[in-house]
Amino acid sequence: MYDLVIIGSGVTGYSAAMYGARLDLSVAVIGNVDGGTITLTDDVANYPGYIQLTGKELADKIKEHALDYPIFTEMGTVIDIFRDEQNFFYIVTENKSFLTKSIIIATGMKERELEVPGHDQLKNKGVSYCALCDAPLYKDKVVAVVGGSDSAAKEALLLAKYCPKVYIIYRREKIRPEPINATRIERESKIEVITNTNVTEILGQNKVTGVKLDRPYNGSDVLNLDGIFVAIGGIPYSELAAKLGVNLNEKGEIKIDRSSRTNVEGVYAAGDVVDSEFKQAITGVAEGVNAAYQAYKYVNENEFIFSCRQEE
Fold first, then answer.
1. CATH H superfamily, domain 2-111+234-311
2. Is the pTM of the predicted complex or chain greater than 0.70?
């Protein structure tokens, strides 16, 4: 029996675990991606206390700090979750089951795929979702990034270190990175931004040779490329929350209040899986800390009830 089980082993999950353990809760962390998706980020320059480091370095530091406390960790995927008649939660992975009084869901999100002809056939054959992973494979080649967020800008800036030409293709009028990255994009002569344009097809047989556009660019609706990197947002991993009756918004994100509480007593959520507008490592960490404190209050306020139920 745990006081608190955290589902998600990224920076949000481990920050919540650290605070839960500091509050003298018995804590377990379950996750299938150690460090979370931030480990795929090459350059983190907006986390307080660190001028610059990689996403993996930040994740490792937070995990190391958390594991200075007596926290149990389990690498695996949660395949079932439910609440019993005594209000204890059961969490089932491929290998074992966990019983807990409270839960924090910090499962993050998965990359949203580009749903156009050619994508499925050419995924991992020139279609990529991770510049940090694959950029060196495109040295001296021409590539494009689809998307207009800060993540898309970072992908393009990293690719420009390897590629002579990087296009950013965005469906709206103007890309929307953080100001510092917008300035870097403007100053990088290798990067060219194509706005008000959608990719309608990815071209090629055994490898990407280009993309088809919904409006001509430089006189042609075909842009010749060696690779395409997709950065068009994500889909939250909120299925487990839904099974517990947690309210989701129209995007599938978990609805939380300012204290990271959901509508289900004893269930809290934090990070990219929730409905916060601004999603950053630092905001996820803060939500995780809030969630841990609320879990601590919930467990202690109901300790007498929990003790009676365990004795029955």
1. FAD/NAD(P)-binding domain (3.50.50.60)
2. yes
